[in-house]
Amino acid sequence: MESERKNRWAGFVVGPAIVFIALGAIWKNENRFDYHQAAKKTQPVESVQALVPGQRFSYTGGMDPQLTLPGQYVDAFTGYLEVQRSAEIDAWEKDTDSDDRVTWSRRWMSRLESNSRNSGITQQLSSRTFSPARYQVGGLTVDGSQIELVDDAVRIPTADLQITEAALQRRDDYLYLSKGESDNLGDERVRYTGIPVPSTATYFGKAESGRGVADTSQARTGMLNTLIQDTGVLHHIVAGERETALATMAAHISRLKWIVRAAASGAVIIGFNLLFSAMLGFLYSVPLIGGLARSGSFLLSLVFALPLILVTMLGGYLYANPLVLAAIAVLIVAGLFALNKRKQKTQKAVYRDLETQYGPKLQTLSMKELEFIELAKLVFSDDHLDPKEEDFLRRWSRQQGWNDARFREMLGRAKALGAGGPPSLNATEEQLENLIRLALADGDLSRSELRSIQHAAKRLGFDQGEVARLTQQVQQMATRNVAPSI
């Protein structure tokens, strides 16, 4: 019970923390430094002598395929811009679920987990990155500090390496360190990957004392930027001529963005799942949410997480691209202006039709009174008004602020005008068109007006498709009859 309470409190704390960090990562990712765009803006130079201090430039030249990096455990690496060594140890991993059930799994892990089954085991091999102090691209010397590389790394075969650590043995493209245990527990291994030296490369960065150095004017710091690998530094060596290198950079940043989006979105869902799992008992009784909670915390997590992820992603993108935001705002304003002009045109056209239809009545009755009369004539076109229809008309009148006396007066007028037996199908359709014209007199159909029309139409056997057709027909006929302004 005590453990269950601890797990619940962990869900309350850890879940929201993961959500907060992951959403922050999504926002930062959409606002990350675009080194591809920064590289495009650099000035290409053909001679190192032409460099101006502080200038952001690009330079293309050949590279030495025999570039050598010092090694550890092995003698050296030849022909690589950078080498990454990854170390792993064969050990036990302990996992405890919310019900205190312990699961043990043995696997290769980058760091030794401290638990009872790993007691007495030590990790001797470590991961590391190897890079030179400086690079040479043609006649340009490039500072190796803070260098950024975006080309794909390849696996380095251990057969190409000269081992300097006697205890290490080659096995399946790994270097193994055996601990001598019968079950091989605690054995370690390392593998190497490297970015090959290209025959031709393009450098993007800043000039200083005739060298290429890191442009840190947009440098990013902080936990979230580190998490999404956003350094904000332009100091890149990329294989190929300038245009080829730019294409590689564009593909790399696009791929990196999508990786972060996917990983951070998954983290948001996991965070909500931890939180809702801890709150499940409480959420069962909450209206609306309770039904989702009974379906499981994961479904509830998706319902909350996905809209939040999309809003954060879109907000971050628009914040990072103000021109796009401005274009959307202009389109919205232009759309509203066009709709308003259409509304005014429709209003003018419909009013002319109403003048023709009603003549002097239009001067003595308001639009809403005429609309009520047409609506009432439709709902008791069979000379009978059942309680449901009367209740519908009464609710409509209350929406206009009419009292009961006004309602009865207008209902009497409608009955008097609608006397004479059931109308023909054509007459009924004409009445429905009149009702639509009255509703369109202010330029558009409100939701309540549309519901009223659909209610009357349904009673007369018209479906929603026919109502839409009649509405479009009324608008087209009215605007076609409007005299052009001079």
From TrEMBL:
Membrane topology reported for the UniProt record: Multi-pass membrane protein
Membrane-crossing segments per the record: 9-27, 258-286, 298-317, 323-339
GO biological process per UniProt: lipid metabolic process; nuclear membrane organization
Entry keyword set: Endoplasmic reticulum, Membrane, Transmembrane, Transmembrane helix
Places the protein is found: Endomembrane system; Endoplasmic reticulum membrane
Protein name (Swiss-Prot/TrEMBL): Tellurite resistance protein TerB
Any one Gene Ontology cellular component term annotated for this protein: endomembrane system
UniProt organism field: Halochromatium glycolicum
